[in-house]
Design brief:
Length: about 425
């Protein structure tokens, strides 16, 4: 038997309800906030990610699924979708249609990471990008959108962590101070961080190692080195978040694993999830469009891991939504034919309906209705049917009664239809 690839799990019919619910809520919220969907290919030229995400990042250095195709072109399965969206934005001149372009996407991403709980090699993101404005209102709106999203899904344990990491104007000065302070305590750093010190020192700030955390505690933080415009941006963002009643905590150690970020960076964290607890990551990338060959254009966005959001849903969510539709149970050939026709009529009216095709006994059919989580059972018996009557059984409340067939169908359409 051939098995699936490690770190690339199947999403089975039992779980799909939760995924669909998360995606539905996201689509509806994106609509109200003025985001439209964009779909970009699963693979891109490798160069896009190297330039977009940054040469020294974990993703580009060790996690990309890169291959040569038949024409010996180097392609990469997308590890994220911000760079592809910016590529599409430039390639199709989307800025000509609106000065602020707001798009969202839902789909699989690929990273060759070590699989563990909440971390996969194929995973799924819901993400959004707002390209064309550096106004802090765009940042505030995105964070309000995410707060509303978690509220609608009744996920209560999330906390918004917010930071500003400055821009190319002020970051070099921070970097200089930070590297000096890390060099002074280099022996206390873990092996990874001693490497990071040379290649990507900011990542030391969010190392989970106990020793590194102690070293970082007293070290300089990006937010202490912000230039005047970055300070002003962050201050205004905080005011607007208060205005919209968006709750957050400042986390001055929050830096992100991709090189394109400037100013605002954020994560939504679920503390009950263990090590892989970031549900959402995002931030501003005011230099990315230019780095990918476009004119200077600010932008901001986020992406969430659907697997982690699904794992955070309240346990009773699926159970509550589960009982739906009508199972038509029949006794005898004539009743079955009538039932077959009724099922068709119900389906045409938008009601989930089914009947047995495996010759189960009536008891077996009722058991099946239960197993498949139908809300109602419509029972057609030979004698009853001659009088135009059927039995309607409520699988949730437990009662049952004999009523006229037409009335039963009418009621079911009313209660279970679209
Ligand atoms: P990221 O922080 O790399 O950012 O990923 C965003 C989210 O995707 C994470 O918070 C996590 O929920 C999920 N995720 C990432 N890697 C995995 C994995 N191996 N397994 C399961 N879930 C994972 C980005 O991707 C940026 N493009 C976000 C962004 C959009 N920034 C601006 N615009």
């Amino acid at each position: 038997m051939i098995k699936g690839v490690r770190g690339a799990p199947d999403i089975l019919p039992d779980e799909i309800g939760k995924w669909q619910r998360v995606e539905e809520v996201a689509r509806s919220i994106f609509h109200t906030y003025g985001y439209t969907e964009i779909r970009t290919p699963i693979f891109e030229k490798t160069e896009l990610f190297i330039r977009g995400i940054g040469q020294g990042t974990d993703i580009v250095e060790k996690e990309m699924y890169t291959f040569l195709d038949q024409s010996r072109e180097s392609l990469t399965l997308r590890p994220e979708e911000t760079a592809p969206v910016i590529r599409a934005y430039l390639e199709h001149n989307l800025s000509a249609r609106a000065s602020l372009v707001k798009v969202y996407y839902i789909g699989p991403m690929f990273r060759h990471e070590r699989p563990q709980a909440g971390r996969f090699r194929q995973f799924h993101q819901i993400g959004a990008e707002a390209i064309g404005s550096d106004h802090p209102a765009v940042d505030a709106e995105l964070l309000a959108l995410l707060q509303q999203f978690f509220h609608e899904l009744e996920i209560q344990e999330v906390e918004l962590h917010l930071n500003s990491i400055g821009d190319p104007g002020c970051r070099p000065r921070f970097r200089e101070h930070f590297v000096a302070s890390m060099l002074a305590r280099e022996p206390e750093l873990c092996e990874d961080c001693r490497m990071r010190l040379r290649r990507n020192p900011l990542r030391i700030l969010d190392c989970k190692n106990e020793g590194c955390r102690r070293v970082v505690e007293g070290a300089p933080k990006p937010i202490q080195f912000l230039c005047e415009p970055c300070t002003e941006h962050f201050k205004r963002l905080e005011e607007l978040l208060h205005l919209l009643d968006v709750k957050y905590v400042i986390n001055d150690r929050l830096v992100r694993g991709l090189d394109y970020y400037t100013r605002t960076t954020f994560e939504f964290v679920n503390k009950t999830l263990g090590a892989q607890n970031a549900l959402v990551g995002g931030g501003r990338y005011d230099g990315l469009v230019e780095a990918l060959g476009g004119p200077p254009t600010p932008g901001i966005g986020f992406a969430m891991g659907i697997e982690r959001v699904v794992a955070s849903l309240p346990k009773d969510l699926q159970a509550a939504a589960a009982l739906q539709g009508v199972y038509v149970a029949t006794l005898g050939r004539e009743a079955w034919e009538k039932g077959f026709w009724i099922v068709q009529a119900l389906r045409q009216k938008g009601v989930r309906a089914t009947l047995d095709v495996e010759g189960r006994s009536l008891k077996g059919q009722l058991r099946q209705a239960n197993k498949e989580k139908f809300r109602y059972c419509l029972i057609l018996g030979e004698d009853e049917l001659k009088k135009g009557q059927v039995t309607l059984k409520d699988m949730k409340e437990g009662g049952q009664k004999s009523i006229m067939l037409d009335e039963a169908v009418e009621r079911l359409v009313e209660r279970q239809g679209p």
